[in-house]
Each structure stands twice: as structure tokens, then as C-alpha cells.
Amino acid sequence: MTLSKRIQEIFKRAPFIQELGVELVTLEIGECHTKLMIQPQHLQQNDFVHAGVVMTLADHTAGAAGESTLPEGQHVLTTEIKVHLMRPALGPELKCHAEVIRTGKNIVVVKATVTGIHHGKEKVLALAHVTLAAISV
Length: 137
Prior knowledge:
This protein has 3 helices and 6 strands, in the order H-H-E-E-H-E-E-E-E. By secondary structure, the chain is of the alpha+beta class. The protein has one domain: Hotdog Thioesterase (Thiol Ester Dehydrase, Chain A), CATH 3.10.129.10. Strand 1 and strand 2 (31-37) form a beta hairpin.
């Protein structure tokens, strides 16, 4: 199976990601771009995008970038995620770019950046550092 099809399958086989509406935009080895069109169910009580949605976008995008560096038959599983929420996330769309920092034998480290419109300009809303375990299923 090609790398592109493998990663597309990750998005298709994840019901929570499908429910949120996270879309794969582009993929290269070690890099992944996604987007999410903001819907009312993504919001918290103050009409900002819920932090859990932002973290999920960063986590899943990082996972796809990380898995793209592994041989077929190996997958990733998040072991640690640290997210810096820098600004309130607003719509209409969030974008995420994840880039692998290092792929080791058992661990993949990825940086994910979530951007969106803030006061009329595209700004960084959150930065995440994600540690993934390389596993065989």
C-alpha cells in the first residue's frame, strides 16, 4: 500500500476524527497538513473552539506525520503531548501543520502548529510537542 493510502486509511478508520470533521490536506514523508471547518459542536461556553478540539487536531496530525516515517506494518501511539494554547481559537477554520523532529527505533517526536484567524489575521493558536511510540499491530 502506498504511503498516501496508508495515511488516508488512518483518517478513515478513526471515527472520532471523522465525527470532528478533520480533513487531510497534504502529506509528505515526515510532514502532514490538516484542516477543520469549525462547527457549533466544536465550541465551548464562550464561543471559542474547545481546547480538546485543538489538542485532537494537533495530536492526530502529528500522528499522521509520525507514521509517515515508519515502515509499513508499524504504527504510532501517542505517549505524551504538551500543548501550549496561545490564543483563543476562532473560526471559520483551523489548520494544522505537523513536522517530525526525530524518528528513532521506538519513539517519534513531532512538532505540530495549529493556526486560525485571530482579529482578522492568520495567527498561531497552539503549539504541540508530541511523543509517539512506534508499535507493531
